[in-house]
Amino acid sequence: MTLPIAERMSRIGTETAFAVSLEASRMAQTGLKIYPFHLGDMNIITPSNVMDAAIEAMKKGKTGYCPTAGIPELREAVAKDVGEQRKLKLTADNVSIQPGGKPTIGKFIMTAMNPGDKVLYPNPGYPIYESQIEFHGGVGLPYGYKEARDGFILDMEAIRQGIRGGAKILIYNNYQNPTGASSPPEEMEELAALAVQNDLFVLSDEAYFEIRYSGKPMSIASFPGMAERTVILYTFSKKFAMTGWRLGAAVGPAKFIEYISKINVNDESCSNHFIQYGALAGLRGSNEGPLGILSVLKERRDILVDLLNAIPGIRCFKPEATFYLFPNVTGAMKRKGVTDVEEFRKLVLQKTGVSFCTRKHFGRPLPGETEQYIRFAYSGIDAPLIKEGMGKLADFLA
Known about the structure:
By secondary structure, the protein is of the alpha/beta class. 41% of the residues lie in helices and 13% in strands. The protein has two domains: 7-45 and 289-397, Alpha-Beta Complex (Aspartate Aminotransferase, domain 1), CATH 3.90.1150; 66-284, Type I PLP-dependent aspartate aminotransferase-like (Major domain) (Aspartate Aminotransferase, domain 2, 3-Layer(aba) Sandwich). The protein has helices at residues 17-29, 48-59, 72-86, 103-112, 127-135, 156-164, 185-197, 254-267, 273-284, 288-309, 330-336, 341-352, 383-397, and strands at residues 35-36, 95-98, 118-122, 139-143, 145-147, 152-154, 167-172, 201-205, 230-235, 248-251, 324-325, 354-355, 357-358, 374-377. It is globular, with a radius of gyration of 21 Å. The strands form four sheets. A seven-stranded mixed sheet has the order 2-10-9-8-7-3-4, with helices on both faces. Strands 11-14-13 form a three-stranded antiparallel sheet, with helices on one face. It has a two-stranded parallel sheet with strand order 1-12.
């Protein structure tokens, strides 16, 4: 028989970093030592107070269903955490607990976007934005980034062009994957003003809000006129090293959050019950665990940036947030006589075991792009292996 595959399935994308991970695993089976910079996973253990609370909750029988929007105590704690850090007035009604940060993207789009609506989204950016927009029948309007003196900045003209083209929704990821870009206050203020002036509804992906090595993080929801038009993607994955626990939240206007919780009923009934008590312990506990995680990541960042910049043909910014680097490898590729960045990635993997993603894993390349970039995630590799892997990369590219 012919399988009855719906037409919409032709429009769904994927997160191809997992394909790179599979490729690296297969290479490892041949005996090649792999230096895993490809996946934004963490090899840092979850703080003990989080684990202990989740185990205790299981022992107390918190293994069944729970309220669809999450246990009330956790919703209140998230509202307090988000509200205090972003200077917003929030209650539990503004919070819907999700099985990870990623579900907020699809549920936001299903709730806010009609088929045919135009959505501005970052590219290069997290590939699920592009996938979910197109899967649900929207029209994606990508905007990119430009190299400035100390890091990447938003292509504001591309955003204005998208607004002129009829965009109704803006997806914004400050502390950005894959570039590590951080908007300075004036850039965020300009973007917020555009959203207010043009009545854009905003998804602010703040997964890396607390993975910041200097200064205080900022949210676009904190700017005048933005709280009522912004949904925040919140996750426990980074701050508490809980990537595999799969827990996050959507935070925004109460009426909108009601609809997101209604999708929860249809999709998964509720998020995992006992894990929510672990997250609650994390929010109520000391900041020692998160600060320890940040310290480890900062050490890795500093080592990796210095070693990459010492390799001829590679130029790499030192971002103040996230656990990603997005080095320009145009010169290195020319030195090896390679013109395709994916061919470059595979060649480096085969010859050195150093595994990373490329710009092509983060949305379709935009017209006019000439520079070549790769992404290093340093959240899942210890400092000694970073040094060893970069030594092999340097020798190969020399």
